[in-house]
Amino acid sequence: MAKTHNPLSGFFRTPKIYTKLPSLGRYYTDDVIDLPDTGELAVYPMTAKDEVILKNPDALLNGEAVAQVIMSCVPSVKNPRKMISNDVEALLVAIQGASRGDNVEVSGKCPECGEVCTSTASVETALETMSILEETYSFKTDSGLEIALRPFTYESTVKAGVANFQSTRSLQSISSITDEMEQLKAFNDSFVRIAQMNFDLVVDSVASVTGTNNGEEFTVYDRAQIKEFLENCETSIGRKIEEQIENINKIGVNKKIQLECDKHGPFEQDIGFDPVNFFTAS
Ligand SMILES: [Zn+2]
Prior knowledge:
This protein is of the alpha+beta class. Helices cover 43% and strands 19% of the residues. The protein has helices spanning 48-53, 57-61, 64-73, 85-100, 123-128, 154-174, 180-205, 223-232, 235-249, 275-280; strands spanning 17-19, 41-43, 103-109, 116-122, 137-140, 146-149, 206-213, 216-220, 256-261, 265-270. Helix 6 packs antiparallel against helix 7. Residues 110, 112-113, 115, 261, 263-264 line the site of zinc ion.
């Protein structure tokens, strides 16, 4: 049955912002993002339903709220969980701008005197000045292996967030355990879980390992083989990977602004571009 044309359809929301991504969409197949030829994604303001989704604490924690709102406001995105975190952050900033306007008021306390200073950040400017991810990231180990890294997916970031949340919770419950041995054991369990989570993230961020064996070059993509290698290699390699990941995570929209204290001059402050806080605060 053909749907009757709704005379109100001309009054539906329209895109308010077009934005590129820190990855330029380079890492994706069509089932993740259907990238327009211009490389810029249309961003619509949130609907009333989107606003409600973002007020659900469980959905926020497990990433479902952000995933749903991105699919609603950026129709080119098909699978937000498979996107790189840097791109998800940029889209959330764009959605904020499309929904609430370009200006974001930022205030912070001067670290010297505690005086509250305010300024205004622009969403458009933040998007225009974003830094761009390289096509590949790699480094050579002392033993001659080349390790290629890839940025975190949103899915991994959510997993890490949940693990952090759980460990904070279990640390809270540990303090209520009266038996000292029991307490020590619970503390140890929690520590092991977090270490395991961090290790999984490191494994996840290694795209491939290339080297030569008897003059023959090989490249390993197999997840299980990469995992086994990381379990058995020198710790300096793990540290180097973590260092590089930290730098990769910083790429994208600049989330700092300079505020100015009358007496003590400029200082840096985070712009409230946090997906969980900036929508729920209002
Ligand atoms: Zn001051």
